[in-house]
Specification:
Number of domains: 2
Structural class: mainly alpha
Order of helices and strands: HHHHHHH
Shape: flat
Largest sheet: none
Number of strands: 0
Distance between the termini: 74 Å
Length: about 130
Amino acid sequence: MAKLYSQNHNSVVFTTVLIFIVLIPTPAQGLCIGPEACGILGATFLSMVTIPICLIAFLLVFWPKTRRLLQGLAILPGFMAILTGYLMVIRVNRFDLFYVPLIHICLMIAMIIVGRLSFKKSEPQV
């Protein structure tokens, strides 16, 4: 009986979370009044997802063996810089929003520089 209750409870929680996720975009759809506004909104939401992922990836800096992986993960902010630059600056002609791709470029450069720290120190001194 307890196993049946736990399975039923899990499905209720899953269904509730799924309905909540489906209904979240409804207020945001009011902000999409045209393709330009939707581009800005989409790029902003993608930035809100990828910047924390990149900051969490900086935890790889503590282990020297994973710093090469950090350099590989620098592709994500580089791709987002291109995407947000196109969606927010070029396509919409809003040059006042150039700071959003700039944040991604700074994250990419920081990930590459920090990822190469161990390689510079391991070179033999002549």
